[in-house]
Amino acid sequence: MPPSRHSSSHHSSSHHSSHSSSHHSSSRSHSSHSSSHHSSSYRSSGSSYRSRAIVHRSRTSQPYGWNHEVHGKVSHFYCTTHDYDYYPQGWTASDGKYFEEGYYDENGRHYDNMVMVGGSTMLKCEYCGNRMVYNWTEGTVPVCDKCGAQFKIDITDKENKTYADNGFKKVFSETPFAGKAAIITFLICLLMPFFVIIGSLFLTFTSHIGSNVNRSTKESVKNSIYVDEIGRTCYLDGEDWYDSKTQCWFYYNDDVSPYQWQYWYEGISSDYGDYGWMEYDMDEGAWYIETGNGKWVHLPDTYDTSALWHMTDEYTNEY
Question: What is the pTM of this model?
Fold first, then answer.
């Protein structure tokens, strides 16, 4: 079993630091973006969205230098509050300016994650970098399907719909008060049995499956994680995920900068007492192990690493 308290340190080398800093740059810059996002006032830019035709907003201060043949397709979302262009990866323009992946509204404001009522959007986990397509349901909290972390949502918008005149509204507005009262009373009497039946069925249904759904959701989101690298689901054992086949405990250490996946292997880590947490340096292709407080060394060659596995940077959830 691993030590009860996780180490808050991690190993570093010159090339590992540069690799990690670039990989996690979006995580560190996220706070600077979100502060500017939430300090802005999100107002609709006109009443044209209440006409019969959808009118797309004119775009200003947009990112530039994107090559769709090299970088891929830009997705467009026309919503109630803003219009958005989604860029699936970051890129550098010819003048050297870097643009982050994510959503840009018609005014050029950047959002890491946007959810849309009535449609699917791409979300990126700020902890493990996983990307997933998500269809948002009001009241739910999006959770990463790889590491279980909650997504930070910069803005919620509604899918834009066309609007048409309602003839019933005009007829009703011209009906005398007595006529309106009669119409309302008739509608209430007509629909009351329907609402009673629906309400009764809803209460019965929710009381029957509510607890099971909550328990199932909690177990699937909070207590399990599917690991692509080993092709199986792992479950929480105390504070850490555990893979019984390799006797490996692992967790995502967000107390260090940049964040790191750390592993504790029975038969290797257990040789180091209160320490023994391991990290894999993908630039070096080598394992490191903590032998003391903040002291990391290359894993000695005397250990057999053929059965060891580690997380990778690449995501496999295609958009």
Answer: 0.38
